[in-house]
Sequence to fold (264 residues):
Amino acid sequence: MAKTMQPQELIDSAVVDPTGNKLGKVGNVYLADATRQPEWITVKTGLFGTKESFVPLSGAHADRDGVHVRVDKEAVTDAPRIEADGHLSAEESARLYKHYGLPMPRTSPDGRMDERAQGRPGGTDRDKAAMDAGAGMKDRDTESTMTRSEERLNVGTERVETGHVRLRKYVVTEEQQITVPVSHEEVRIEREPITKPGGERVEIGEDEQEVVLHAEKPVVNKETVAVERARLKTETVTEDQTVSGKIRKEQFEVTDDEGKHRKS
Fold:
């Protein structure tokens, strides 16, 4: 990693393995205390980036598309799960070095891991008061600052397609009955007596008359008429939904010479 690279420039950068697979984004940068150079990064993975895996920066380089590391995705996935709480213990560092096959850092004469090789998170000022006081290089009135950060959930909405609704019409056949009045002709005989016979000549014989009868019959015709109109309309219904996600936040911890801890 180039010496000019600043830890804050690495935060949220994409992390790419040697085969071009994107592993996630940089969550934290851990510096080597001895050189103050980036030594480890954590890669945010999983839903909402809630999981973080430690990835070594040995042999890594930064490019336009992110930080290119020398370990593959499988090695990062199988890396020991260590809480990214701002400090790596000697045991945690040893597990990471062993997993990635990296040489162990220099150890002190008593066999414990040299604290100068242990990673500490980048992007914050180290407590120079404790360091300089032990080396006798600091005045009593010197003070240092440290910035505490925390994550917050930003929730919004986006419009997505949820389905389709179709309106169609189809034809059904049904029986319909309508009563229609019809008329027909019938024959009846009207008799009229002749009371005053005239002088006309009457002969006895056969005779025949024909009358044409008529009747009405139902005639059915069909016509198509518009009876109803339907249309599809959408309406917006607003409801409340609860979303959740894990967030991280930093805490301050003060340690005295006796090893006592006090959180703030």
The longest helix spans residues 90-100. The beta strands are 14-16, 22-32, 38-45, 51-56, 61-63, 66-68, 119-121, 253-255, 261-263. Residues 156 and 186 are 88 Å apart (CA to CA).
